[in-house]
Design goal:
8 copies of one chain form a homooctamer. Chain A is α/β, with parallel strands linked by helices. The first copy, chain A, has helices at about 15-20, 35-45, 50-75, 90-100, 115-120, 130-140; strands spanning about 1-5, 25-30, 75-80, 105, 125. A 5-stranded parallel beta sheet of chain A has the order 2-1-3-4-5, sandwiched between helices. The two termini of chain A are about 25 Å apart. Chains in contact: A-B, A-D, A-F, A-H, B-C, B-D, B-F, C-D, C-E, C-G, D-G, E-F, E-G, E-H, F-H, G-H. At the A-B interface, helix 3, helix 4 and helix 5 of A face helix 3, helix 4 and helix 5 of B.
């Protein structure tokens, strides 16, 4: 099973899932989580831009090569919304994955429940913790529930 | 041409576009913009829920009947991000529209430029005002530029 | 909006919806609801069969010309499960519609809730009465809630 | 060849097919067949629900991650209808598989022939026993008939 | 309903269907049935060819503009096999229509039954006369059987 | 029938086809053929750019809203290559149309034959004059050849 | 590269291609070429039929499990028309493969040229001998021409 | 990751990329770059043609077996435009890849910027050198930027 881990990049939630899923037949993918590299990749390779819009544009498109390919290949897309920032790219990925018919799992705290209701409505599961994602992957693959 | 107007529902930007586009062969669609009705439609029709999550869930799914159908039918999807709120449903719609191969126009103020870089990267045009959307629709349909 | 009304054919639920939706811009379609004609159409036109399996097979395929075409054309598929019979064709239509990405509304009594949980899980709305379907169509098209 | 075994979970028909097909290049998949785990997986991982509808809803969606993925990946979908229960999820899977263009094999007893005529009409083969499924897989892969 | 009438062009079966279906909401399409024009259209417009292969190639491709468009637009494709000639283009159209998910009706005499078994296996109905096609279209659209 | 006329914009070939096809049931579409407007539309509406690349980029994307929509809607795409310029956008449109399964007609002079062999290989017809396009549309729609 | 070898089953053309292609990275597939098994597979496994139509129907559908799967998986579909029989299943496969966007190679003698013009028009290559197929596969994979 | 290298065949840019990407998990594909073989493959295998158009036609179609298959399989399509020739096949490939939703990277010198603006507008990255392609592939796969 291929699982793409989209969204928040400032905590170690991806590591927790990958570690928790050790032993399962899962192949994980993710966006580049080095924030500085992700922001500057476009101009670093393709030449500097004076205008911040085009600076970001080049980077966002280069990152899209990776993220689109990973979402297309995924069976399951997990999207985590953290406490901070606008995180519109996470919601964009969720919409993209939903339109492609991917199984969508959304992870967020209770305080974001109302604001994420449309995203949650497109999901096959809504949870709060990496541990729950691990338990779901374990159940989906092996049919066993947490004891 | 069918144009879906997604996103912010607290200002009159949709009216400005519809009025400005009078005379063009455009058929506009939009989500339900009555905030209270949109929030409560699920339970009003399908029965109350004690849990706020399911209250919202029912409503979001009922609204999805309208919004998915409109995005599928659209040639162009315009997504506006306003000054306030999380607006994750707007970004979700943008991702959904992009994955469906719709022509995407994103409208937002300069202060959101960096946060929306991934959404903008999927768009065929990024603008700030309803007047610019009208000018684009006029150009795309009639080939004439603003004088 | 095009709405296909699938499922139970022994009560007048379709008539209630069509009458209730008078005035809405909805085009309804349905399977042939004349039970005898539906059962015998294959052999009546294409020649008799000694074997009941092929008798039914010819009829079911001829009916499929109508039902597949209607589901493909529909924006919304309403599937009603009644009190009696196996109604596997209703569940088949629900699965077919779900796989085609149609907005699915399921209508059934509370006693069938557990048995229909997989079908309900694929729906954007689950309700019990034709009146609720009318209210949903009204809301989805006009944005107005029942008073 | 990938074969998904959908439907009835109370007899050992899956085991019979898997054993009979030993030596063939077939990779089988199936839903979780532990009835209790399948019913309660949603609340066990994602939190309890007072309302039975949502209890079932969470579980059905979590199971859908597994079943949709397996049907999408399958070349052949075998759906068995047993003697008991409504088995609407089996018919739903058959409709889903048909709409996705999968080769559909339906297995059921003669007493269900009339009620399953629409499902059978979408199938490439209708049979009664696991042994027949094994013989078909053997023929399809190796071109040899039972002696 | 859009119905494409493919195959044999030497008898008046298309006229019989069109006349019989007068009053039904059906829009019929067909290939160019002027045999000489159909054979020579390529070179007549695009320049002569010494080699018969290219003479035919140009014509077949020009005819394909019409036939592919008509099959794509059709809800139902009727393919008739007559008594004479190889009629490989009829079988090609049947395969093309089947792959596009069109409802396929095959019409042929009993003597071709064995040779057409693979084509018939992909059809929703197999019949012998134009009258049967009319009766099927009448039933599919109006739900009424021949008296 | 919907026909998109792509490619060279410096001669009146589109007018010749539209006039020649008067009386046929054809709906023509085309890119914006006002060269200056086409080049500057992006910055005229969305704001000036110092860098010629982004100046062109904004314009090309805005034009793509029109051209992609027109190609998607077309049954037939006619692409003309003239005597001058690189005309890579014409070849791009041809590739785009081919991948979308559109019927492709290529029009060019004999001197470009070798350079266009890959484009011609994807076409259903290759011709030199607008009159030939009119004759093909006439034949495809009415079955009549030029006298 | 996956190559499906469709059509005539009475000569050893498939063996010639497979042997000639030894050393190339090609995975070949084919229908069941045991004529008797292919004709009787349906009733041998699924039960006898008095009516020859249903006898053939069961067999043709069972064979379709293999052939559809193989065509779907193929990169290249080679269809050979021999000297005898109607061979409508070969033309059906060609149409099916064309509609699925597969690279189509047609092999037949010169005497069938006119009757196969529509099938040839959908092909990327038309040839007469297995040796030519081997040479094409060699060129397509390795870029080397026969010396 | 699968990367197809389309376009100019007279310099060693493909070798530079393949060498630079040594160690990355990338599988490269390309058209046949032996110019003489590519031009004459059709007639060498399928028989000579007097007419240059059909000589080229046969070759272009045979090459299309390889190129279409490679583009379909690719995650990323890199298209290089060189200094000379019309290179319409390169632009055709770019359009084909864009329509198939492939990640598109365009490589060309500054002098072609204006003429390629429509092609560049469909790309996720525009660059000038093979080294930049290597750096992008490295970043996309490993998340590391050139130091």
């Amino acid at each position: 099973m291929k699982v793409y881990l989209s969204g928040e990049i400032h905590t170690d939630w991806r590591d927790q899932i990958v570690e928790g899923a050790a032993g399962l037949e899962v192949e994980f993918s993710a966006p580049v989580t080095d924030h500085a590299a992700s922001d500057d990749c476009g101009v670093a390779i393709l030449g500097i831009e004076d205008n911040k819009f085009w600076h970001d544009h080049k980077g966002a498109k280069l990152n899209a090569i990776r993220t689109r390919m990973a979402i297309e290949a995924a069976d399951v897309v997990v999207v985590r919304f953290g406490e901070k920032y606008k995180q519109w790219n996470a919601a964009f990925d969720a919409g993209y994955a939903a339109a492609k018919g991917k199984a969508l799992i959304v992870m967020h705290g209770a305080d974001h429940q109302h604001a994420l209701k449309e995203v949650d409505a497109a999901a096959l599961a809504v949870c709060e913790t990496p541990q729950q994602v691990v338990e779901m992957l374990t159940y989906v693959l092996n049919g066993t529930l947490p004891s």
